[in-house]
Write a structure and sequence with these properties.
Its EC number is 2.3.1.286. Its main location: cytoplasm. The protein has about 230 residues and is α/β, with parallel strands linked by helices. Helix content is about 35%, strand content about 20%. The protein has two domains: about 140 residues, TPP-binding domain (Rossmann fold), CATH 3.40.50.1220; about 80 residues, SIR2/SIRT2 'Small Domain'. β4 and β5 form a beta hairpin. α5 runs parallel beside α9. It is elongated. It binds ligand BV8. The site of ligand BV8 has 34 residues, from α1.
């Protein structure tokens, strides 16, 4: 394997599955008994803000009871010791990568532990519920929403992601079904720029054919083995 210098890693719900956080597809297309369009779209929020706020309050509370698993720990170890460029992009809105010690995590779909004020546009760290419409720490308005990218909304820091994909020699996708865009298209972007592409997943994803190599199994087993390989290289 020619010397790898710049790595981009994309993680999805599968990397947090063994920490006890439900993936989106495991619930047979329903997501915690809700349809995505009712709880993860701006239209759904406008239609029934209480339903959406309760949905996110429940998940924000739940993730704070969970712990990182060996996949998060291994990625944090790679982040701390890799001597080239490393960008860890996650589709997940939990903070398990950070709690495992990863330093530069890019949450392209936002974060449960932030609240976004629709009055002053400021984002604040937030661990409690939003259902009782608490005042924004910045402007005092009761206009806080989850700082999460809903379907139809633009994911965060896309330019930074595409710049890293243009420079990377290795793109690794971990625990994602490849169902949601633009994240699902990153492998093609990396491949077009000459990077090698590796997928670590419990089952083949919708984009498996774009990967040079796919390893099937639980992230808590596959990720530490891969990190040892790439550090030992
Ligand atoms: C946008 C935050 C444009 C919310 C999320 C038609 C065709 C193509 C695209 C579209 C289309 N119609 C609409 C679109 C665009 C849409 C889209 O892609 N829809 C899909 C459904 C077709 N995308 C968007 O809307 C995005 N925005 O396009 O904006 C735009 C342009 C200009 C201006 C404005 C806007 C925004 C998408 C972001 C939505 N928000 N999350 C929240 O979390 O509450 S997405 C959410 O679902 C997750 O963040 C994640 O991204 C996605 C689920 O994917 P995964 O993470 O992969 O999880 P999943 O359950 O699917 O898979 C888990 C995998 O893990 C499985 O493969 C499983 O086998 C594996 N696994 C399980 N256990 C383990 C494991 N692997 C390893 N170990 C294990 N133990």
């Amino acid at each position: 394997m020619e010397r790898v210098r710049n790595i981009v890693i994309l993680t999805g719900a599968g990397v947090s599955a063994e920490s006890g956080i439900d993936t989106f597809r495991s619930a047979g297309g329903l997501w915690e008994q809700h349809r995505v369009e009712d709880v993860a779209t701006p239209e759904g929020f406008a239609r029934d803000p209480e339903l959406v706020l309760r949905f996110y309050d429940m998940r924000r509370e739940a993730i704070q009871q969970k712990r990182p698993n060996p996949a998060h720990d291994a990625l944090a170890r790679l982040d701390a010791t890799w001597d080239g460029e490393l960008l860890l992009v996650t589709q997940n809105v939990d903070d398990l990568h950070e709690r495992a010690g990863a330093a530069n995590v890019l949450h392209m779909h936002g974060e449960h532990l932030n609240a976004w004020c629709t009055a002053c546009d400021v984002r604040s760290a937030w661990t409690g519920p939003l259902i009782n419409r608490p005042p924004c720490p910045e402007c005092g308005e009761s206009a806080l929403r989850p700082d999460v990218v809903w379907f139809g909304e633009m994911p965060y820091q896309m330019e930074r992601i595409y710049a890293a994909l243009a420079e990377c020699d290795l793109f690794v996708s971990i625990g994602t079904s490849g169902a949601v865009y633009p994240a699902a298209g990153f492998v093609r972007e990396a491949k077009a720029n000459g990077a090698r592409t590796l997928e670590l997943n419990l089952e083949p994803s919708q984009g498996s054919r774009w990967f040079d190599e796919t390893r099937l199994g639980p992230a808590s087993e596959l990720v530490p083995v891969w990190v040892d390989e790439v550090l030992g290289e």
